[in-house]
Design brief:
- It holds the Pfam family S-Me-THD_C.
- There is one protein chain.
- By secondary structure, the protein is α+β, with helices and mostly antiparallel strands.
- The protein has two domains: 202 residues, CV3147-like fold (3-Layer(aba) Sandwich); 134 residues, CV3147-like (Beta Barrel).
- The radius of gyration is 19 Å and the shape is globular.
Length: 360
Protein backbone atom coordinates (compact mmCIF):
# COMPACT_ATOMS: atom_id res chain seq x y z
CA UNK A 1 0.00 0.00 0.00
CA UNK A 2 1.39 3.41 -0.98
CA UNK A 3 1.96 6.03 1.72
CA UNK A 4 2.50 9.78 1.70
CA UNK A 5 5.83 10.90 3.16
CA UNK A 6 5.68 14.35 4.72
CA UNK A 7 8.57 16.55 5.83
CA UNK A 8 8.18 15.65 9.50
CA UNK A 9 9.13 12.01 8.73
CA UNK A 10 12.46 12.82 7.10
CA UNK A 11 14.47 13.11 10.33
CA UNK A 12 13.85 9.47 11.20
CA UNK A 13 14.43 8.40 7.58
CA UNK A 14 17.75 10.26 7.35
CA UNK A 15 18.94 8.92 10.71
CA UNK A 16 18.09 5.32 9.89
CA UNK A 17 19.52 5.59 6.38
CA UNK A 18 22.84 6.85 7.74
CA UNK A 19 22.99 3.88 10.11
CA UNK A 20 22.25 1.42 7.30
CA UNK A 21 24.74 3.29 5.11
CA UNK A 22 27.70 1.83 7.06
CA UNK A 23 29.48 5.16 7.35
CA UNK A 24 28.91 6.29 3.75
CA UNK A 25 26.13 7.60 1.56
CA UNK A 26 26.55 11.21 2.66
CA UNK A 27 25.79 13.40 5.65
CA UNK A 28 22.33 12.69 7.15
CA UNK A 29 21.74 16.25 8.37
CA UNK A 30 22.34 17.75 4.93
CA UNK A 31 20.19 15.07 3.29
CA UNK A 32 17.38 15.67 5.75
CA UNK A 33 17.38 19.45 5.20
CA UNK A 34 17.32 19.08 1.41
CA UNK A 35 14.42 16.61 1.51
CA UNK A 36 12.40 18.60 4.05
CA UNK A 37 12.77 21.76 1.98
CA UNK A 38 11.72 20.01 -1.25
CA UNK A 39 8.68 18.35 0.34
CA UNK A 40 7.50 21.59 1.98
CA UNK A 41 7.84 23.37 -1.37
CA UNK A 42 6.31 20.74 -3.66
CA UNK A 43 4.21 18.49 -1.41
CA UNK A 44 4.44 14.97 0.04
CA UNK A 45 6.22 12.12 -1.73
CA UNK A 46 4.29 8.97 -2.62
CA UNK A 47 6.15 5.86 -1.45
CA UNK A 48 5.12 2.61 -3.17
CA UNK A 49 5.98 -1.02 -2.52
CA UNK A 50 7.49 -3.24 -5.19
CA UNK A 51 4.27 -5.24 -5.45
CA UNK A 52 2.48 -2.08 -6.62
CA UNK A 53 4.80 -1.42 -9.57
CA UNK A 54 3.32 -2.30 -13.01
CA UNK A 55 5.44 -4.57 -15.21
CA UNK A 56 5.76 -1.84 -17.84
CA UNK A 57 6.93 0.84 -15.39
CA UNK A 58 10.19 2.69 -16.14
CA UNK A 59 12.29 3.21 -12.99
CA UNK A 60 15.47 5.26 -12.64
CA UNK A 61 17.74 5.45 -9.59
CA UNK A 62 18.87 8.85 -8.28
CA UNK A 63 22.08 9.34 -6.29
CA UNK A 64 24.97 11.64 -5.49
CA UNK A 65 28.39 10.39 -6.57
CA UNK A 66 31.65 11.52 -5.01
CA UNK A 67 33.56 11.78 -1.77
CA UNK A 68 31.37 12.27 1.35
CA UNK A 69 33.94 14.67 2.82
CA UNK A 70 33.43 17.02 -0.13
CA UNK A 71 29.62 16.82 0.09
CA UNK A 72 29.72 18.23 3.63
CA UNK A 73 31.22 21.48 2.33
CA UNK A 74 29.79 21.54 -1.20
CA UNK A 75 26.05 21.12 -1.04
CA UNK A 76 23.90 20.59 -4.15
CA UNK A 77 23.02 23.81 -5.91
CA UNK A 78 19.40 22.81 -6.55
CA UNK A 79 19.45 22.46 -10.34
CA UNK A 80 21.37 19.19 -10.74
CA UNK A 81 18.37 16.84 -10.65
CA UNK A 82 16.55 18.65 -13.44
CA UNK A 83 19.73 18.89 -15.52
CA UNK A 84 20.34 15.15 -15.18
CA UNK A 85 16.70 14.38 -15.97
CA UNK A 86 16.83 16.41 -19.19
CA UNK A 87 19.96 14.54 -20.26
CA UNK A 88 18.38 11.18 -19.46
CA UNK A 89 15.15 11.98 -21.32
CA UNK A 90 17.15 12.83 -24.46
CA UNK A 91 18.35 9.24 -24.80
CA UNK A 92 15.63 7.25 -23.05
CA UNK A 93 12.87 8.02 -25.54
CA UNK A 94 10.10 7.28 -23.01
CA UNK A 95 8.74 8.75 -19.82
CA UNK A 96 10.16 7.81 -16.43
CA UNK A 97 7.30 6.58 -14.22
CA UNK A 98 9.05 5.91 -10.88
CA UNK A 99 12.25 6.79 -9.01
CA UNK A 100 14.30 4.65 -6.66
CA UNK A 101 17.29 4.75 -4.29
CA UNK A 102 20.40 2.96 -5.42
CA UNK A 103 21.78 2.69 -1.86
CA UNK A 104 21.08 3.50 1.75
CA UNK A 105 22.84 6.55 3.17
CA UNK A 106 22.28 9.95 4.73
CA UNK A 107 22.15 11.71 1.35
CA UNK A 108 21.58 8.85 -1.06
CA UNK A 109 18.37 7.78 0.67
CA UNK A 110 17.12 11.37 0.88
CA UNK A 111 18.13 12.86 -2.49
CA UNK A 112 15.56 10.56 -4.18
CA UNK A 113 12.89 12.21 -1.99
CA UNK A 114 14.05 15.58 -3.34
CA UNK A 115 13.79 14.29 -6.90
CA UNK A 116 10.38 12.72 -6.25
CA UNK A 117 9.03 15.91 -4.69
CA UNK A 118 10.31 18.06 -7.58
CA UNK A 119 8.98 15.77 -10.31
CA UNK A 120 5.83 14.40 -8.66
CA UNK A 121 6.96 10.86 -9.48
CA UNK A 122 6.40 8.05 -6.95
CA UNK A 123 9.41 6.64 -5.09
CA UNK A 124 9.95 2.91 -4.57
CA UNK A 125 10.22 1.54 -1.05
CA UNK A 126 13.44 -0.26 -1.96
CA UNK A 127 17.10 0.23 -2.80
CA UNK A 128 19.79 -1.49 -4.84
CA UNK A 129 22.06 -2.76 -2.03
CA UNK A 130 20.45 -2.92 1.41
CA UNK A 131 23.38 -0.77 2.60
CA UNK A 132 25.94 1.50 0.88
CA UNK A 133 28.98 0.56 -1.20
CA UNK A 134 31.58 2.91 -2.70
CA UNK A 135 31.42 2.03 -6.41
CA UNK A 136 28.69 2.26 -9.07
CA UNK A 137 28.74 -1.38 -10.13
CA UNK A 138 28.36 -2.67 -6.55
CA UNK A 139 24.59 -3.09 -6.72
CA UNK A 140 22.16 -5.97 -7.01
CA UNK A 141 21.04 -4.82 -10.48
CA UNK A 142 24.56 -5.71 -11.66
CA UNK A 143 24.04 -9.26 -10.35
CA UNK A 144 20.70 -9.30 -12.18
CA UNK A 145 22.38 -8.37 -15.47
CA UNK A 146 21.11 -4.77 -15.63
CA UNK A 147 23.37 -2.11 -17.14
CA UNK A 148 23.99 1.12 -15.29
CA UNK A 149 23.86 2.91 -18.66
CA UNK A 150 22.53 5.13 -19.98
CA UNK A 151 24.02 7.05 -17.05
CA UNK A 152 23.52 10.79 -16.68
CA UNK A 153 25.70 13.03 -14.50
CA UNK A 154 25.17 16.71 -13.72
CA UNK A 155 26.82 19.41 -11.63
CA UNK A 156 25.65 22.67 -10.09
CA UNK A 157 27.04 24.72 -13.00
CA UNK A 158 24.65 23.17 -15.54
CA UNK A 159 27.14 20.72 -17.05
CA UNK A 160 25.86 17.25 -17.86
CA UNK A 161 27.33 14.07 -19.31
CA UNK A 162 25.87 10.85 -20.66
CA UNK A 163 27.66 7.53 -20.60
CA UNK A 164 27.24 4.27 -22.49
CA UNK A 165 29.83 1.67 -21.55
CA UNK A 166 30.55 -2.00 -22.25
CA UNK A 167 29.93 -2.98 -18.62
CA UNK A 168 29.20 -1.50 -15.20
CA UNK A 169 32.81 -1.44 -14.03
CA UNK A 170 33.75 0.76 -16.98
CA UNK A 171 30.78 2.98 -16.08
CA UNK A 172 32.24 3.38 -12.58
CA UNK A 173 35.65 4.23 -13.98
CA UNK A 174 34.48 6.88 -16.43
CA UNK A 175 31.79 8.34 -14.15
CA UNK A 176 34.29 8.66 -11.28
CA UNK A 177 36.64 10.65 -13.50
CA UNK A 178 33.81 12.97 -14.58
CA UNK A 179 32.62 13.39 -10.99
CA UNK A 180 36.15 14.40 -9.94
CA UNK A 181 36.21 17.05 -12.69
CA UNK A 182 32.80 18.23 -11.49
CA UNK A 183 34.33 18.93 -8.09
CA UNK A 184 34.23 15.44 -6.51
CA UNK A 185 30.44 15.59 -6.38
CA UNK A 186 27.88 14.92 -9.11
CA UNK A 187 24.20 14.05 -9.36
CA UNK A 188 23.58 10.79 -11.21
CA UNK A 189 20.65 8.99 -12.81
CA UNK A 190 21.34 5.35 -13.55
CA UNK A 191 20.12 1.74 -13.72
CA UNK A 192 16.96 2.07 -15.79
CA UNK A 193 14.71 -0.80 -14.66
CA UNK A 194 11.41 -2.17 -15.90
CA UNK A 195 8.68 -2.98 -13.44
CA UNK A 196 9.07 -6.70 -14.03
CA UNK A 197 12.77 -6.47 -13.02
CA UNK A 198 12.54 -4.66 -9.69
CA UNK A 199 11.67 -7.66 -7.54
CA UNK A 200 14.86 -9.44 -8.63
CA UNK A 201 17.12 -6.41 -8.80
CA UNK A 202 16.21 -4.40 -5.66
CA UNK A 203 16.00 -4.91 -1.90
CA UNK A 204 12.33 -4.48 -0.85
CA UNK A 205 11.24 -2.32 2.07
CA UNK A 206 14.49 -0.40 2.57
CA UNK A 207 12.90 3.00 3.17
CA UNK A 208 10.37 1.57 5.60
CA UNK A 209 13.25 -0.13 7.42
CA UNK A 210 15.35 3.01 7.69
CA UNK A 211 12.39 5.00 9.02
CA UNK A 212 11.75 2.31 11.64
CA UNK A 213 15.45 2.23 12.53
CA UNK A 214 15.61 6.00 12.91
CA UNK A 215 12.43 6.04 14.97
CA UNK A 216 13.50 3.38 17.47
CA UNK A 217 16.80 5.19 18.09
CA UNK A 218 14.94 8.47 18.68
CA UNK A 219 12.35 6.87 20.94
CA UNK A 220 15.02 5.04 22.94
CA UNK A 221 16.52 8.28 24.24
CA UNK A 222 16.09 8.40 28.01
CA UNK A 223 14.22 5.08 28.04
CA UNK A 224 16.65 2.36 26.96
CA UNK A 225 20.04 1.90 25.34
CA UNK A 226 19.66 3.33 21.80
CA UNK A 227 22.61 1.29 20.48
CA UNK A 228 20.93 -1.90 21.71
CA UNK A 229 17.66 -0.77 20.09
CA UNK A 230 19.37 -0.21 16.73
CA UNK A 231 21.26 -3.49 16.97
CA UNK A 232 18.00 -5.34 17.54
CA UNK A 233 16.37 -3.84 14.44
CA UNK A 234 19.45 -4.69 12.36
CA UNK A 235 19.56 -8.26 13.71
CA UNK A 236 23.14 -7.31 14.44
CA UNK A 237 25.95 -7.84 16.95
CA UNK A 238 27.83 -5.38 19.13
CA UNK A 239 31.47 -5.57 18.04
CA UNK A 240 33.07 -2.92 20.24
CA UNK A 241 32.56 0.07 22.49
CA UNK A 242 35.33 2.58 22.94
CA UNK A 243 36.98 5.92 22.30
CA UNK A 244 38.41 7.01 18.96
CA UNK A 245 42.12 7.64 19.50
CA UNK A 246 43.32 8.18 15.94
CA UNK A 247 41.84 8.93 12.50
CA UNK A 248 43.78 9.04 9.23
CA UNK A 249 41.61 10.20 6.34
CA UNK A 250 42.34 11.41 2.81
CA UNK A 251 40.31 12.16 -0.29
CA UNK A 252 41.85 10.43 -3.28
CA UNK A 253 40.51 9.10 -6.55
CA UNK A 254 37.08 10.50 -5.74
CA UNK A 255 36.80 8.52 -2.48
CA UNK A 256 37.29 9.24 1.20
CA UNK A 257 39.77 6.59 2.35
CA UNK A 258 41.30 5.97 5.73
CA UNK A 259 41.49 4.19 9.05
CA UNK A 260 40.26 4.83 12.57
CA UNK A 261 41.64 3.30 15.77
CA UNK A 262 39.56 2.79 18.91
CA UNK A 263 40.57 1.94 22.46
CA UNK A 264 38.01 -0.06 24.40
CA UNK A 265 35.89 1.07 27.32
CA UNK A 266 33.63 -0.87 29.67
CA UNK A 267 33.54 -4.54 28.71
CA UNK A 268 36.19 -3.83 26.04
CA UNK A 269 38.68 -2.10 28.37
CA UNK A 270 42.26 -2.91 27.33
CA UNK A 271 41.28 -3.99 23.82
CA UNK A 272 41.54 -2.20 20.47
CA UNK A 273 39.56 -2.05 17.26
CA UNK A 274 40.67 -0.72 13.89
CA UNK A 275 38.29 0.32 11.12
CA UNK A 276 39.29 0.69 7.47
CA UNK A 277 37.01 2.57 5.10
CA UNK A 278 36.54 3.66 1.49
CA UNK A 279 33.56 6.01 1.84
CA UNK A 280 31.95 3.09 3.75
CA UNK A 281 33.41 0.97 6.55
CA UNK A 282 35.03 -2.07 4.91
CA UNK A 283 36.62 -4.10 7.70
CA UNK A 284 36.76 -4.13 11.51
CA UNK A 285 39.70 -5.77 13.29
CA UNK A 286 39.44 -6.35 17.03
CA UNK A 287 42.84 -6.96 18.60
CA UNK A 288 44.14 -7.60 15.09
CA UNK A 289 41.51 -10.21 14.20
CA UNK A 290 38.81 -9.53 11.59
CA UNK A 291 35.39 -9.59 13.27
CA UNK A 292 33.37 -8.07 10.41
CA UNK A 293 33.95 -7.12 6.81
CA UNK A 294 32.28 -6.47 3.49
CA UNK A 295 29.71 -7.28 2.35
CA UNK A 296 28.30 -7.36 5.91
CA UNK A 297 27.43 -4.04 7.50
CA UNK A 298 29.74 -2.21 9.94
CA UNK A 299 27.86 0.65 11.60
CA UNK A 300 29.41 3.22 13.96
CA UNK A 301 27.01 4.82 16.46
CA UNK A 302 27.40 7.42 19.17
CA UNK A 303 27.45 5.33 22.35
CA UNK A 304 25.14 7.67 24.26
CA UNK A 305 22.61 8.74 21.64
CA UNK A 306 22.75 5.96 19.06
CA UNK A 307 23.12 8.59 16.32
CA UNK A 308 25.10 7.40 13.28
CA UNK A 309 28.70 8.53 12.87
CA UNK A 310 29.72 8.66 9.21
CA UNK A 311 33.29 8.12 8.04
CA UNK A 312 33.71 11.86 7.43
CA UNK A 313 32.39 12.47 10.96
CA UNK A 314 34.91 10.28 12.80
CA UNK A 315 36.83 12.45 15.28
CA UNK A 316 39.39 11.94 18.02
CA UNK A 317 37.78 11.48 21.41
CA UNK A 318 34.35 10.38 20.19
CA UNK A 319 32.80 7.62 22.31
CA UNK A 320 31.29 5.19 19.85
CA UNK A 321 29.85 1.70 19.55
CA UNK A 322 30.53 -0.46 16.50
CA UNK A 323 27.78 -2.83 15.34
CA UNK A 324 28.06 -5.59 12.73
CA UNK A 325 24.98 -6.81 10.86
CA UNK A 326 24.29 -9.35 8.10
CA UNK A 327 23.95 -8.17 4.51
CA UNK A 328 21.33 -9.17 1.96
CA UNK A 329 21.88 -12.89 1.30
CA UNK A 330 22.48 -12.24 -2.41
CA UNK A 331 25.79 -10.59 -1.51
CA UNK A 332 26.94 -13.84 0.10
CA UNK A 333 26.74 -15.80 -3.16
CA UNK A 334 29.95 -16.42 -5.17
CA UNK A 335 28.92 -13.74 -7.68
CA UNK A 336 28.09 -11.29 -4.90
CA UNK A 337 31.40 -11.86 -3.13
CA UNK A 338 33.26 -11.46 -6.41
CA UNK A 339 31.67 -8.03 -6.78
CA UNK A 340 31.86 -6.69 -3.20
CA UNK A 341 33.76 -9.21 -1.07
CA UNK A 342 37.07 -8.68 0.75
CA UNK A 343 39.13 -9.79 -2.25
CA UNK A 344 37.78 -7.02 -4.47
CA UNK A 345 39.06 -4.40 -2.02
CA UNK A 346 42.49 -6.01 -1.84
CA UNK A 347 42.16 -7.90 1.44
CA UNK A 348 43.70 -11.35 1.71
CA UNK A 349 41.27 -12.68 4.31
CA UNK A 350 38.26 -14.72 3.23
CA UNK A 351 34.68 -13.74 3.93
CA UNK A 352 33.21 -14.98 7.21
CA UNK A 353 29.59 -14.02 8.05
CA UNK A 354 29.45 -11.61 10.98
CA UNK A 355 27.17 -13.90 12.96
CA UNK A 356 29.78 -16.67 12.64
CA UNK A 357 32.75 -14.51 13.67
CA UNK A 358 30.81 -13.14 16.64
CA UNK A 359 29.85 -16.63 17.77
CA UNK A 360 33.43 -17.88 17.81
Amino acid sequence: MSVQITADRMADIARGAAILGTGGGGDPYIGRLLAEQAIRRHGPVTLVGLDEVPDDAVIVSVAMMGAPTVMVEKMPGGTEIQTALRAMHEVLGEEITHLSCIEAGGINSTIPFVAAAETGLPLLDADGMGRAFPELQMVLPTLAGVSTCPLALADEKGNSALLRTVDNRWAERFARSIAIDMGCRAMTLQYVLRGDQVREALVPGTLSLVERLGRVVREAHGRRDPVAAATEVLDGHLLFTGKITDVARRTTGGFARGTARLEGTGAYEGRTLELEFQNENLVARRDGVVVAGVPDLICVLNSDSGEPVTTEGLRYGFRVSVVGAPCDPRWRTPAGLDLVGPGYFGYDHGYVPVETSCAS
